[in-house]
Design a protein that fits this description.
This protein has 643 residues and is an alpha/beta fold. The chain is built from 18 helices and 16 strands. The strands form 4 sheets. A 6-stranded mixed β-sheet has the order 10-16-15-13-11-12. Strands 7-8-9-4-14 form a 5-stranded mixed β-sheet, with helices on both faces. The two termini are 33 Å apart.
Length: 643
C-alpha cells in the first residue's frame, strides 16, 4: 500500500486479498490524486500497466496486485480509519481496468484461451504466463487450442514470449506437419516404449492408464457411442498394434492397423465390490497384438449416479493424451446433442512421424554425461531384504499439502517441481545419510527439434524417463534450491537423450540407472465441470491398472499433482507407493510426514525471502554456468572493482 502511494498519480491505496476468481488474488483500491488533471493523466489501461510495473520493481510477483479498482474516496470508520469491510466487491466496483484489454483479434483469441486453460477471468494481455501458474503442460494445451482457432504457436515460443501481447506478435498461420490422413505402416518404438518391452514383463497386455468420470444421469448412450467412435477414428494411436518377431531388433515392432469399432458397454453396478470386480475385468481385457487396446464402459450405480470408465494400454497414451481425449469427447458429444455434425479440430503430427524424427537424431554427445549420472551410489535403506516387489504387494500412502501452502507454492518464483525435488532430496538424505542420491524422474517428453512438428493434439506415449543425480550442499536452503534448479535445468534435451541412447544401441551397463525411487510431478489435474457431459473425476478409486504379477521397477515411487479439494480450492496431492515386502508401513508414514514438513519449511523460507526482497540466484544453463560458479565470478569482479 505504501509503495502504491509513492506513485505520483495515487493519493491513497488499500490492498486486500480476494477469492472471487477461483484463486487468491490481490485487489488494490486506489484514489487518484486530486491534483492530477485526468484529461492529461495516463489512460486507464496505461495507468494500470504503470502501477503494476511500479509495484513489480520492488515487490515479488505474488505481491503485485492483479486487479485495480478506482474509488473517489476510501470508506472510513467513525474513528477515521479505513473501513476495509466497507470496500466494494471488485465485481461491482468501477475498475480502473482489471487487466490490460486485448487490442487485436489475435490477442482476443489468446486471452479467451488463457482464461480457459488457467481457470481465471482475471487475466490481461500484459500478465505473465508463469506468474499466473502456467507450466509446460498448460503451455501445450494453449498451443492446441490456439491451433484450433487458426493460430500457430509452439511451446518454445510461449516460453520465450510470456504475455498474450508478446505471443500475439509471433503467432502465425505457418504450415506444420499435420496429419489430415490416417497414419499407416510401421512406426519406430519411442524410447519409453522400447523401455517397456525391454523389461520383459510376464503380462505385457495388462499395463494400462485409466480414468473414471462422473457423467450426468440423463446421458444419451447413442450420442456417447457416436462420440467415442469418432474419437477412435480421429486419433491414429487407437490403431497402433504390436507384434513380436525374434529375428528383428528390437524384437517388438509397432505398426498402424485398420480402423476398429469400439463398443460402449453399459453395466449396472450393485455395490463397491461389484464395481471393483467389473473394473478389474475391464482392465484385463486389452490385448496389444490383436486388440482391443482401448475400452469404454458406462456404469450405472444402484446407489445413484453414473460413471464413464475409459481404459487404454499405456503404450498408446500418457497423461497429456487424456486431456486431449476428454476435450475431444466433450466437443463431439456437445455437437451431437445440439444436432450438429460432429467435427473435431485438425489432427497434429502423427506419433509415428515424431518417433521417426527422434530416431534420426544423434545423442552420442550425451553419453559421457549419462554414464556419470548412472555411476553407482550407496543404496537407500530397506526394512526387508529380498522381498518380492510386485503390483500385488504394492501399497500407497496419500497425503496433501493444505490449500494455503499450495497457493503459496504456486506463487513463488521457483518452479514447483524444483521445490518438490528439493524437499525429496532433503528427506532422502536425512533418512539414508547418503551424501549423493540418484532418482528417476519423468518429463512429458513432447519435445521436437523441428518447427514443422506440432504435438499439441497428438495422442501417444511420449514420456521421457531419466536419472537425476544430486548431492545437496550443506549450506543454506537457498543454496540447496539453487543446486537442484541448476541440476534439473542442465539435463540435456529434457532427458530425451537418455532413453534414446539406451534404445539405440547394444546393452550398455554404464547406462543402467541405480535409482531406487522415481518422482513424477503431473501438474494440475482438473476437469472443466462447466461442460454438460462430465461433472468431474469420480470419487471412487480406479484399481487394477496393472496385472498383480507385474514386477515393480522401484521399491518406492512418488507422484505429485495439484487437484481441487471438496471446497474447490487447489491442493497438492502426494502419493507414496511402496512394496510392502520391502518396507513397513510406518517407515513410509514417517517419510511422507518428514517430506511434508520439509516442503512446508521450504515454502515458508522462499516466501520469507521474497518478502525481504532477497534475489533468487539466476541460472545460466545455456552457458553451463551454475549459481555457485556465477557467485564466485561476481565476487572476483567485485574485488577488482568491476561490478
Amino acid at each position: 500500500e505504501a509503495l502504491l502511494c509513492q506513485h505520483p498519480q495515487i493519493d491513497q491505496a488499500v490492498v486486500l486479498p480476494n477469492k472471487a476468481h477461483g484463486r487468491e488474488v490481490l485487489v488494490a483500491y486506489v484514489v487518484v490524486t486530486a491534483s492530477a488533471d485526468r484529461e492529461l493523466a495516463a489512460p486507464a489501461q496505461s495507468l494500470v500497466a504503470d502501477l503494476r510495473h511500479h509495484a513489480s520493481q520492488a515487490l515479488p510477483a505474488y505481491m503485485v496486485p492483479t486487479q485495480f479498482v478506482e474509488l473517489e474516496h476510501l470508506p472510513l470508520t467513525s474513528n477515521g480509519k479505513v473501513d476495509r469491510a466497507a470496500l466494494p466487491s471488485p465485481e461491482i466496483a468501477e475498475n480502473i481496468q482489471t487487466q490490460v484489454l486485448p487490442q487485436t483479434d489475435k490477442e482476443e483469441i489468446l486471452l479467451d484461451i488463457w482464461q480457459q486453460i488457467l481457470g481465471s477471468q482475471a487475466i490481461g494481455t500484459q500478465d505473465n504466463f508463469f506468474e499466473l501458474g502456467g507450466d509446460s503442460i498448460s503451455a501445450m494445451q494453449i498451443v492446441s487450442k490456439a491451433q484450433q482457432q487458426g493460430l500457430s504457436l509452439t511451446p518454445a515460443q510461449l516460453f520465450e514470449h510470456q504475455t498474450i501481447a508478446a505471443q500475439a506478435t509471433v503467432a502465425t498461420q505457418s504450415a506444420i506437419s499435420l496429419s489430415p490422413t490416417p497414419a499407416v505402416g510401421e512406426a519406430p518404438l519411442a524410447p519409453i516404449q522400447w523401455d517397456f518391452f525391454n523389461q520383459e514383463l510376464p503380462t505385457p497386455h495388462h499395463y494400462n492408464q485409466s480414468i473414471m468420470v462422473v457423467v450426468r444421469p440423463e446421458i444419451s448412450v447413442k450420442h456417447l457411442q457416436t462420440a467415442l467412435q469418432l474419437l477412435t477414428e480421429h486419433h491414429d494411436a487407437f490403431r497402433l498394434r504390436f507384434k513380436e518377431e525374434s529375428d528383428q531388433s528390437p524384437p517388438w515392432q509397432q505398426y498402424y492397423g485398420p480402423a476398429v469399432e469400439v463398443p460402449l458397454d453399459v453395466t449396472e453396478i450393485t455395490d463397491k465390490p461389484h464395481l471393483n470386480k467389473t473394473i478389474a475385468k475391464l482392465q484385463s481385457s486389452l490385448n496389444i497384438i490383436t486388440g482391443p487396446i482401448f475400452s469404454a464402459t458406462l456404469l450405472h450405480l444402484q446407489t445413484g449416479g453414473s460413471r464413464l470408465f475409459l481404459a487404454a494400454h499405456h503404450l498408446i497414451v500418457d497423461g497429456v493424451s487424456w486431456r486431449i481425449l476428454l476435450t475431444d469427447l466433450l466437443t463431439a458429444y456437445s455437437q451431437l446433442e445440439a444436432q450438429q455434425i460432429p467435427i473435431l479440430p485438425q489432427k497434429t503430427t502423427a506419433f509415428g512421424h515424431w518417433s521417426h524424427h527422434l530416431q534420426g537424431r544423434s545423442f552420442k554427445s550425451e553419453l559421457a554425461y549419462w554414464s556419470k549420472v548412472c555411476t553407482s551410489v550407496s543404496p537407500l535403506p530397506v526394512d526387508k531384504l529380498n522381498g518380492c516387489n510386485t503390483v500385488a504387494q504394492q501399497r500407497e500412502i496419500s497425503i496433501s499439502l493444505d490449500a494455503h501452502h499450495t497457493t503459496l507454492l504456486s506463487s513463488l518464483k521457483h518452479p514447483v517441481d524444483v521445490l518438490l525435488v528439493t524437499a525429496l532430496a532433503q528427506t532422502l538424505s536425512q533418512w539414508s545419510r547418503n551424501k549423493t542420491l540418484v532418482f528417476d524422474m519423468e518429463d512429458h517428453g513432447r519435445h521436437s527439434w523441428s518447427e514443422d512438428i506440432d504435438l499439441s493434439r497428438t495422442v501417444g506415449w511420449f514420456t521421457a524417463l531419466f536419472p537425476v543425480r544430486l548431492s545437496l550442499p550443506l549450506g543454506s536452503l537457498d543454496e540447496q534450491v539453487s543446486h537442484v534448479q541448476d541440476t534439473i535445468a542442465q539435463v540435456p534435451n529434457h532427458g530425451m537423450g537418455y532413453g534414446a541412447l539406451r534404445a539405440g544401441q547394444a546393452p550398455d551397463p554404464t547406462l543402467n540407472s541405480p535409482a531406487q525411487i522415481s518422482f513424477n510431478y503431473l501438474g494440475r489435474l482438473t476437469i472443466d465441470e462447466a461442460q454438460g457431459l462430465i461433472q468431474g473425476l469420480a470419487p471412487e478409486s480406479v484399481t487394477a491398472m496393472r496385472h498383480p504379477d507385474t514386477p515393480c521397477r522401484y521399491p518406492m515411487e512418488m507422484v505429485a499433482f495439484v487437484q481441487p479439494n471438496k471446497a474447490r480450492r487447489e491442493e497438492l496431492k502426494l502419493s507414496w507407493r511402496y512394496g510392502q515386502q520391502c518396507y513397513h508401513s510406518n517407515t513410509l508414514e514417517q517419510l511422507s510426514q518428514r517430506y511434508l514438513a520439509n516442503l512446508r519449511s521450504l515454502i515458508a523460507h522462499c516466501h520469507s525471502s521474497s518478502n525481504s526482497h532477497q534475489p533468487i540466484a539466476p541460472s545460466f544453463t545455456a552457458a553451463r554456468v551454475d549459481s555457485k560458479q556465477l557467485s564466485q565470478l561476481m565476487n572476483k569482479l567485485a574485488a577488482k572493482g568491476r561490478t
